[in-house]
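Why do we bother with a discrete structure alphabet at all? Because it lets us treat a fold like text: something you can write down, compare, and reason about line by line. To make this less abstract, here is a complete entry for Translation machinery-associated protein 22. Read it the way you would read a sentence in a foreign language you are learning: slowly, and without expecting to understand everything at once.
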Amino acid sequence: MAEKPEPFRVLYCGVCTLPAEYCEFGPDFEKCKPWLIQNAPDVYPDLIQEANSKEADKVSEQLQSVGISSDGTAPPPSSANSGTSTTKKEEVKRLPGGKIKKKDKQEVVIEKVVRNKRKCVTIVKGLELFGIKLSDASKKLGKKFATGASVVKGPTEKEQIDVQGDIAYDIVEFITTTWPDVPETAIYFIEDGRKVPAA
Ligand SMILES: [Zn+2]
């Protein structure tokens, strides 16, 4: 730079007219600062740092105000944003083990099994999913079909109702009449290992 002052030359401040190195003792050092930064950077090196840090503050403020993070990366486009939120929702559903929590499907499953050779039992599963108290349902079923009915724990530790005897084909009407919240379309039979809709 041609204007860079030589060490031996006295540089006079363009603002206060004092020699540049006396500016800080002059009447208005603040006003001198911009001129000094421009014309006598060697005399007051601190000024440049000061100015730079102020400038940096300003820049980071501007970056923040437009939503750009300080590391300079632009915010993702809105399409990516919605994708991110979808991912978050999916993560919420995931249990710690990585399993996806699935809400139990509201359905009643009726299965007829033959135990102890010719003794038939009708198993009713899923009434609790409709807010029905199983002990209450068990009593009603036993009374209706004049047989033994009890709440027992099934193989998966889920409670079910075991009704003695083959009542499978009478039970659907009884369920839908007794508990109108259970639609016939939500009732299934297990026949030969296959799930068959009752409706
Ligand atoms: Zn000055």
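What the structure line is telling us, in plain words: The CA atoms of residues 118 and 165 lie 10 Å apart. The longest strand covers residues 108-115.
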